[in-house]
Amino acid sequence: MHLPRALARFNRRVTNPIQRRWAGVIPYHGIIEHVGRRSGRSYRTPVLTFRDGARGFVFVVGYGPDSDWVRNVLAAGGAGLVHRRRHYRLTNPRLVRGAEGRTLLPAPVRVACAVAGVQAVLRTDLG
């Protein structure tokens, strides 16, 4: 289970434009910069993100692995990220599913994701 697609559509049109104002600044949030697989259009999507040591970042995939931003990042083999006012280049994106993926998250977030039925996280390296 993951969060409903109707909520994803609502967030894309209403919540995301508002969140983009601060998501690249506050802790545990970021703006992933990716390019559409078919359109070639640039997108900036607010996401929950956590450092993966010095190696990269881990992203909560709350709407499931079929989310457009996840598919775009996987297809492109990377993306940009604005996190705490810094720009990063991300490479080697991969989905880590189930409990194994949740172990990459901080404990309180891990519990919340398990309760919400989050099925995967996206793990990346710094490029």
Can you describe what's shown?
The N and C termini lie far apart (32 Å). This protein is 31% helix and 38% strand. Strands 1-2-3-6-5-4 form a six-stranded antiparallel β-barrel. The chain is built from four helices and six strands; from the N terminus they run αβββαββααβ.
Short structural summary:
By secondary structure, the chain is of the alpha+beta class. It has helices at 5-19, 68-76, 98-102, 107-116, and strands at 29-35, 42-52, 56-60, 78-83, 86-97, 120-126.
- Helix percent reads 25-40%
Strand % is 35-45%
Provide the CATH superfamily.
Electron Transport, Fmn-binding Protein, Chain A
Order of secondary-structure elements: HEEEHEEHHE
CATH topology: Pnp Oxidase, Chain A
Which terms would index this structure?
Pnp Oxidase, Chain A; six-stranded antiparallel beta barrel; alpha+beta; 127 residues
